[in-house]
Write a structure and sequence with these properties.
Layout lengths: L16 H18 L3 E2 L5 E3 H8 L4 H4 L4 E2 L9 E3 L4 H10 L9 E10 L11 E10 L4 H18 L5 E6 L6 H12 L8 H9 L10 H7 L11 H17 L3 E3 L11 E8 L9 E7 L3 H4 L7 E7 H10 L12 E5 L5 H13 L4 E3 L6 H10 L4 E5 L5 E5 L4 E2 L5 H15 L1
The protein binds histidyl-adenosine monophosphate (HAM).
The site of histidyl-adenosine monophosphate (HAM) has 26 residues, from strand 6, strand 10, strand 11 and helix 11.
């Protein structure tokens, strides 16, 4: 046995989880297609400077969790495995001149991401997100469209109790004054804060609202709410989004202390949460507006909004609720044989069945026919085709436990296809 294990936080997905991931991913693409979001596949690594600028140099994601790759050969650029998809999507929007298309440009992707974090249930170093971005529209209508799309995706998977925790994090006009109010609120207790939170107080006080440190959590409970400090435009936008979500029937929980761990957000910010889940596991996804990001990355000032839903957490939630879809079924037909020499013939017949649209596998072993039949039953096959020594085929119905007389190949294959149609 090999002494190798999968690296910490990087998992093998076995059945039924592998099928569940595939299923949730297929449903994500289908939800995006149905809403007119164009698919985009982004590279798995980008210049690390892209993430530093977009997500923010002081964010945990960049300062602690980025996997940087050593430059190779003539290439002096440091790349990083992507920790999120928004920066890459906005980079692509600028690079491919998508501003000349009708706005907003609606993009969707399902992406594998990497963050160096302490692994625990629901938090992995490699994980998958369903990511939606709508770039080029500043009105509250697109906020409603995007928030509803994520909520409907989760609901349609069976997570019907999902809640949208909604906040506005303001804009460059109103946020600086709020940040100072927040700093003033925490400064009297600075000595009680952890070292990390003392440095957050100095560099980015908003992050304190997201801290898990007991002293900070205690003080944050009485912190002023940003929604009381928004400028007139942000207040109007937030009111419009809140009212619109009520009209659509999306369950919203006002969350005036919700801040997100990425620096690019402005105005609308939200999370999809499952009530009653432990720790991070209930945080299925999150998103927000990023009205300054296109410009920050070198493009013409253009607003944007999007969300990402963690597929790994969705699958965990489905599992906890007994809602996992059944794993892919075994083959409907197994092609067995009496003589070892018939192996090639068995493989050919199985291929012919698959070409006709029925799942099938050959038993390629030289085992006795009884063992081959046992294997077919274990696989849950509906029927077995047995290649007889004289080349005739026998069709055995495993569901009805009946067997036809040996016959010519064409007739038996037609009968097998009919059997799967009737019983499959
Ligand atoms: P985020 O909140 O960093 O946002 O991640 C969104 C979701 O990805 C989380 O709610 C969680 O379900 C999942 N997730 C994050 N980290 C992990 C992990 N280590 N293991 C498993 N799942 C994880 C973003 O990434 C933004 N780019 C979302 C966005 C798109 N904002 C605008 N557009």
């Amino acid at each position: 046995m090999s002494g190798f294990q999968s690296p910490r936080g990087l998992r093998d997905l076995l059945e039924p989880l592998a099928s569940a991931h595939g299923w949730a991913t297929d449903r994500a693409w289908a939800a995006a297609d149905a809403a007119g979001y164009a698919r985009i596949e982004l590279p798995i690594a980008e210049e690390s400077a892209l993430f530093e600028r977009a997500v923010g140099g002081t964010s945990d994601i960049v300062s602690k969790e980025l996997y940087r790759l050593e430059p190779r050969g003539d290439d002096a650029v440091t790349l990083a495995l992507r920790p999120e998809a928004t920066a890459g999507a906005v980079r692509a929007y600028i690079q491919h001149g998508m501003r000349s298309q009708p706005q907003p440009v609606r993009l969707a992707t399902v992406a594998q991401l990497f963050r160096y974090d302490r692994p625990q249930k629901g938090r992995y170093r490699q994980f998958t997100q369903f990511d939606i971005e709508a770039i080029g529209d500043s009105g509250p209508g697109i906020d409603l469209e995007v928030i509803e799309l994520g909520a409907a995706y989760l609901r349609d998977l069976g997570l019907t109790d999902v809640q949208v925790h909604l906040n506005s994090v303001g804009c460059t006009t109103c946020r600086p004054a709020y940040v100072e109010t927040l700093r003033a609120h925490f400064t009297p207790v600075v000595q009680e804060l952890s070292e990390v939170d003392q440095s957050r107080l100095a560099t980015n006080p908003l992050r304190l609202l997201d801290s898990k440190e007991p002293a900070t959590v205690k003080r944050a409970a009485s912190a002023p709410a940003i929604t009381d400090h928004l400028c007139a435009d942000c207040t109007a936008h937030h009111a419009s989004v809140t009212a619109g979500l009520a009209t659509i029937g999306v369950a919203v929980v006002p969350a005036p202390r919700l801040v997100r761990g990425l620096d690019y957000y402005t105005r609308t910010a939200w999370e999809y949460l499952l009530p009653g889940e432990q720790g991070q596991q209930g945080a299925l996804g999150g998103g927000g507006r990023y009205d300054g990001l296109v410009e920050l990355l070198g493009g013409t000032p253009t607003p944007g909004i999007g969300f990402a839903i963690g597929i790994d957490r969705v699958v965990l939630a489905l599992e906890a609720r007994g809602l996992l879809p059944t794993a892919a079924a075994g083959p409907a037909i197994v092609v067995a044989g009496i003589e070892p020499e018939s192996v090639a013939e068995r493989v050919a017949i199985a291929g012919q069945l698959r070409a006709a649209g029925v799942s099938a596998r050959a038993d390629v072993s030289t085992r006795k026919i009884g063992k081959q039949l046992e294997g077919a039953v274990r696989d849950g096959a509906l029927a077995v085709i047995i290649v007889e020594p004289d080349g005739h085929l026998t069709l055995r119905d495993l569901v009805k436990a009946s067997q036809a007389e040996p016959a010519e190949r064409g007739g038996v294959i037609a009968a097998a296809l009919q059997l799967v149609k009737n019983e499959g």
